């Protein structure tokens, strides 16, 4: 005899595979999340979404930055334009001037003149700053330090020589610079002692009449 109280859903629940029920729940949950996300996007004003932009960093023009830094340090626009335009690596020139000007009492125009005349502007700046700030003996005039660093073939090693000697010897800084500069003049760029020329290539001293 057929039982009318027997619910049809019981048959569906008994016959339906368990995997299909899990799939239905997953689809229902995913649909709910998609609807919620759509409502949130619709709620954002159009003006706000249009204002969102993605910006990528631009490559700086080294000549522009060089000119800006030199003028900011006190160099005249004409001098800054000529120095930056004539430099192979303009940022090295401006960094040299800015570092010397900020960390010593040397004017930017004086620093620029020396920074343009050396092969290693960055080492020149390090040399001047280190000797002015780290030498423990009687200090030398800042412009003298600048000139001695400029004359050195290896400015960074030159400053290490001066600073190192100043911590052991009670000599004035100008004397230490002369000593280190004379020693560096006898060394080639690769760090080896300069060879002595043959006797026949040495010009004999002239005789006074």
Task: Walk me through the topology.
Elements lengths: L7 H8 L2 H26 L2 H6 L10 H12 L3 H9 L4 H14 L4 H8 L5 H14 L7 H10 L3 H12 L6 H13 L24
How would you describe this protein?
With 209 residues, the protein is an all-alpha fold. Helices cover 63% and strands 0% of the residues. The chain is built from 11 helices and no strands. The model is unreliable at 48-53 and 185-209 (pLDDT under 50).
List keywords for this structure.
11 helices, elongated, 209 residues, mainly alpha
* Overall SS class: mainly alpha
Strand content: under 5%
Query: Number of helical runs?
Result: 11
Order of helical and strand elements: HHHHHHHHHHH
Number of strands: 0
Low-confidence stretches: 48-53, 185-209
Question: How would you characterize the largest beta sheet?
Answer: none
What characteristic shape results from the CA principal axes? Answer: elongated
Mean pLDDT: 78
Helix content: 55-70%
Oligomer: single chain
Instruction: Supply Rg.
Output: 38 Å
Give the end-to-end Cα distance, rounded to a whole number of Å: 152 Å
A few lines on this structure:
Helices cover 63% and strands 0% of the residues. The chain has 209 residues and is mainly α.
